[in-house]
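seq/struct pair 1
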Amino acid sequence: MDETRRDRDTEGRARNARPRDGLGRPLPYGVPGVGRQPEGVVRTPEETVQEAQRLLDAGMPFHAHEVFEDAWKSGPVAERELWRGLAQLAVGLTHAARGNATGGARLLRRGAAALAEFAAVRPYGIGVDGLIGWAEALAGRVVVGAASGAGPVDAAAEAPCLRTPVR
């Protein structure tokens, strides 16, 4: 790849073709990376939750965010805030795993706030109330950890369970 030219897709839109690592960070051209999530995939809510959970469990929250983003953009208007909030949680975990404590905590809290209206509903079996608690707790730990010199969090170890049991 000629690194002086901008990567373009078949329709001429700018697209970065550099390989990415599991947290979505660009790698040098020619280095093997993690397969990217295809954009614009329309999935059922069940497929969305299953694929996002698989990616979260694998320590790839950036890729899970892309799955949620597809649902946010293609789903019913009444559910957009749900999928957007879930995408923000995944991006918050991504930033925390990259060592960006401020951005990670901010996005975790923003995602939790976006999900608040769904807490009592459990849409598609998603344990929204548990995710809100997880996000707030992780945001606090990330900020405290950064202040004490702790490094990035382990994305796989910190991955939330999207379908927490009802208590």
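seq/struct pair 2
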Amino acid sequence: MADIRSLGSFPDPSGDDATGRDRDDSNVVPLFADGALPDSDDLRLSEDDRRELVGWTIACAERLLPLFQVERPDDDRPREALAAAEAFLRGELDIDAVREKAFACHEAARQAQDPSAVAAARVCGQAVAVAHLAGHSRQVPRHTARAFPGDRSRRDEELAWQRMNIPARFDAYVYDGD
């Protein structure tokens, strides 16, 4: 499982930076190099922006993957897809190879029976698909909400974790886009 701090986009929850000093927790939202936030109508975004979103979506999907593995412990497609997305982040796989892994996640979801397992596989598929199309990131919270039928507290906890860990400049893109 990836350490989200190693993916480069997530704050250290301790409040300290790498030097042990307190971070400046001002509400300044980092901007694109040209000074604009992501265009919520642009489902593709630049490859650099998609890479940043992939880091967040991988972290979200890894937290849900155990829900899939409970039902289908021998089905490695979602885990392999997340590994492919990490390889994409390292520049080792191209978008087409990663897309194939996303499709495999959705096939795994169709074969699962438990709603939690289905939702977890869908989150993995959407997370990986962000390498191709940033708009898939908007589906991560939606499928996450379906992963906890009957457990509103756990659902809310997971959705809150996602919201707290999304790179700030993508918050409106993911949660207000559409």
